[in-house]
Specification:
single chain; alpha+beta; Immunoglobulin-like; six-stranded mixed beta sheet; three-stranded antiparallel beta sheet; 7 helices; 11 strands; cytoplasm; CS domain-containing protein; CS_dom; unfolded protein binding
């Protein structure tokens, strides 16, 4: 497991004027470079030419982790903005809603048999509702927004965002990533996350970092990168994996064989939802039809094409 901690955390911080000038210089360079991609490419070239950073075999993984953490932060900010907009919309609807209707007249008392039957039905309904309530619609990142943390996923990885008090430093964080377990929290306080992972991860390819001193970003690299996770921690609310969708940009990044497998999996998933045959079943149908057309002398009266 690698840790991306605050740069020079234990050294004296820059003066505000120096930090402001540095940020203005970077902003000017970004504007003049013609785009973020060219700006980052120029920064990488400078780091390669004037430092030993890329002589480190883990340099690429570190840069990838930084980019993933930045993307996770952007997604968290977008989700927060969307949540606030939804809250404002609900408040506006509640303010415009008509006054509640008068309470209905009391219904006659039920017999003891009706009460017993109703109680059993109610209990069965509660058990079904409890199972269904644990499965939720995915958020924009194919994960869930929970009370203590939020998470998103693509086939190769899971990104977790945990809010922490403003000004939190990496030395105050407890983040233990094991193959099948995750523990996250602040020193001297009860864990925020502590439990068995939904699926195993590649510990050496997992990272965490503090973002703006107010959130902890964790990147988990899945051991099996061809399946969707239903949850991060076993027992937590689960996402409906039938409704997750990979980003098209992510599909284009995959090698041809992997992309073909993923697209086939997505096609079969949609076919099952509509009650239609999967790609394997369709292939079997075509093979049977072809065989029947090539052997008309054979009796297929009892044969069925599934």
């Amino acid at each position: 497991m690698a840790i991306i901690s605050d740069l020079q955390e234990d050294e004296a911080p820059r003066q505000p004027q120096q930090a402001a000038r540095a940020e203005e210089a970077l902003a000017a360079a970004l504007e003049q470079s013609g785009g973020a991609a060219l700006f980052l490419q120029a920064a990488i070239n400078v780091a390669r030419q004037r430092s030993d950073f890329f002589r480190d075999p883990s340099a690429v993984s570190k840069v990838t982790a930084m980019a993933s953490a930045a993307r996770a932060q952007v997604e968290a900010e977008e989700r927060e903005a969307k949540r606030k907009a939804q809250e404002a919309e609900r408040a506006a609807k509640a303010a415009a809603a008509p006054a509640p209707a008068p309470a209905p007249a009391p219904t006659p008392a039920k017999s003891s048999e009706e009460k017993a039957e109703s109680s059993v039905e109610k209990q069965d309904k509660m058990e079904v509702d409890k199972e269904e309530s644990n499965v939720r619609q995915p958020n924009a990142g194919n994960g869930l927004d929970l009370e203590k943390y939020s998470w998103t996923q693509q086939l190769p990885e899971v990104n977790i965002t945990v809010p922490v008090p403003q000004g939190t430093k990496s030395r105050s964080v407890v983040c233990e990533i094991k193959k099948d377990r995750l523990k996250v929290g602040l020193k001297g306080q009860p864990p925020i996350i502590d439990g068995e992972l939904h699926k195993p991860v590649k510990v050496d390819d997992c990272f965490w970092s503090i973002e703006d001193g107010k959130s902890l970003s964790i990147l988990l690299t899945k051991h099996n990168q061809m399946e969707w996770w239903r949850s991060v921690i076993k027992g937590d609310p689960e996402v409906d994996t039938q409704k997750v969708e990979p980003e098209s940009s992510k599909l284009s990044d995959l090698d041809p064989e992997t992309r073909q497998t993923v697209e086939k999996m997505m096609f079969d998933q949609r076919q099952k939802q509509m009650g239609l045959p999967t790609s394997d079943e369709m292939q079997k149908q075509e093979m049977l039809k072809k065989f029947m057309s090539e052997h008309p002398e054979m009796d297929f009266s009892g044969a069925k094409i599934a």
